[in-house]
Amino acid sequence: MDYVKAFFVGGLICAAVQIFMDNTKLMPGRIMVILVCLGAVLGALGIYEPLIDWAGAGASVPLSGFGNTLYKGIKEAIDKDGFIGVFKGGFTASAVGISTALIFSYIASWVFKSKMQ
Question: What keywords is this UniProt entry annotated with (predicted)?
């Protein structure tokens, strides 16, 4: 049942974003920023964490989940280090995910022999 919930919630998020892309003239980069900010705002309001607890990866994998991760990292760093946590909290919370994406992208460029265009 966990897989069904994750598929359902992730699909709803993706479908809503696709409808938003089709019905507005916003560029995809701006829509991605909106998703990250929306995840951070919903996390600050206490709405996103229960959704992640219920839906699992269906809510944590989309970009809104990344925004929620950034919010949680900043909140924890502010509690621990004070104002300087605003600047370092997001980096420490998301470092593993970003590093993994960079490393696997680099490995994929070797495997598929990508070239600069």
Answer: Membrane, Transmembrane, Transmembrane helix
First-last CA distance in the chain: 44
CB 51 within 8 Å of CB 59: yes
The total number of residues written for the chain in this structure? 117
Residue 37 confidence (pLDDT) above 90: yes
On whether the CB atoms of residues 31 and 19 are closer than 8 A, the answer is no
Q: How far apart are CA 77 and CA 92, in angstroms?
A: 9
Could you give the residue ranges of the DSSP H alpha helices within 1-117?
2-23, 28-44, 48-55, 57-60, 63-81, 85-111
pLDDT of residue 50: 92
Judged by DSSP in three states, 80 sits in helix
Q: Give residue for tokens 């605003």.
A: 86
| Sign for the pseudo-dihedral over CA of 107, 109, 110, 112 | positive
